[in-house]
């Protein structure tokens, strides 16, 4: 009879001791270990990537976030891919910081810009262009002015001079 009572009382005694020790461990203020510091409030950033031509979403575009704190220190980067609606959402960057957003999508120009995060939400809409022609030094560029063209014409119209003996 006593053995039966001990069998039932022993698990209850172990559970009670476990509760007492866990409460004591939480209450320990002897300075050992780390103190818990709550993370700062974060901003929910929603980035929508659209085509500039028709406003349709761009799926599977890489959106790279570079968080920069108030002191100007860059904290690495975080990359997300856009979903079928052209959206990428992140909520780990603290309010008051700056975020540099870079967008890379196949068949479109790369985009980059910095945004301040003064509130708990930030909605960003980015419209991407198709890439333009590459710049070539072998072609005439009317927007560069006529200086280069005049110099080339002058040099081309003068015959090469022979050294005199």
Structure characteristics:
alpha+beta, 165 residues, Immunoglobulin-like, 7 strands, 2 helices, 3-stranded mixed β-sheet, 4-stranded antiparallel β-sheet
List the helices and strands and how they pair.
Layout: H1 2-26, E1 42-51, E2 62-68, E3 78-81, E4 87-94, E5 98-104, E6 111-116, E7 121-128, H2 147-157
Parallel strand pairs: 1-7
Antiparallel strand pairs: 1-4, 2-3, 2-5, 5-6
Question: How would you describe this protein?
Answer:
- Residues 148-157 have low confidence and may be disordered.
- This protein has a domain at 42-128: Immunoglobulins (Immunoglobulin-like), CATH 2.60.40.
- It is α+β, with helices and mostly antiparallel strands.
- The longest helix is centred in the N-terminal third of the chain and has 25 residues, at 2-26.
- The radius of gyration is 33 Å and the shape is elongated.
- The protein is built from two helices and seven strands, in the order H-E-E-E-E-E-E-E-H.
- It has helices at 2-26, 147-157, and strands at 42-51, 62-68, 78-81, 87-94, 98-104, 111-116, 121-128.
- The protein has a four-stranded antiparallel sheet with strand order 3-2-5-6, with no helix packed on it. A three-stranded mixed sheet has the order 4-1-7, with no helix packed on it.
- Helices cover 22% and strands 30% of the residues.
What Rg is obtained from the alpha carbons, in whole angstroms?
Answer: 33 Å
Q: Decide which structural class fits the backbone.
A: alpha+beta
Q: Mean pLDDT score, rounded?
A: 81
CATH class of the domain at 42-128: Mainly Beta
Distance between the termini: 134 Å
Give the helix tally: 2
CATH topology of the domain at 42-128: Immunoglobulin-like
Strand portion: 25-35%
N to C succession of SSEs = HEEEEEEEH
What percentage of residues falls in helices of 4 or more residues? Answer: 10-25%
**Topology, number of strands:** 7
Which ranges are low-confidence, i.e. pLDDT below 50, for 5 or more consecutive residues? Answer: 148-157
Largest beta-sheet details: 4 strands, antiparallel
CATH architectural label of the domain at 42-128:
Sandwich
**Molecular shape:** elongated
CATH homologous group name of the domain at 42-128: Immunoglobulins
Strand order of the largest sheet: 3-2-5-6
């Amino acid at each position: 009879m006593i053995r039966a009572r001990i069998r039932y009382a022993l698990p209850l005694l172990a559970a009670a001791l476990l509760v007492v020790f866990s409460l004591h461990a939480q209450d320990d203020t002897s300075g050992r270990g780390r103190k818990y510091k709550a993370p700062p409030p974060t901003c929910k950033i929603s980035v929508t990537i659209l085509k500039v031509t028709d406003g349709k979403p761009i799926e599977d575009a890489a959106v790279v976030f570079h968080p920069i704190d108030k002191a100007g220190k860059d904290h690495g980067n975080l990359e997300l891919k856009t979903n079928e609606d052209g959206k990428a959402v992140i909520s780990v960057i603290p309010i008051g910081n700056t975020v540099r957003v870079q967008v890379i999508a196949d068949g479109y120009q790369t985009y980059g810009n910095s945004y301040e995060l003064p509130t708990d939400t930030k909605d960003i809409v980015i419209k991407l262009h198709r890439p333009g022609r590459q710049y070539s030094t072998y072609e005439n560029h009317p927007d560069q002015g006529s200086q280069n063209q005049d110099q080339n014409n002058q040099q081309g119209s003068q015959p090469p001079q022979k050294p005199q003996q």
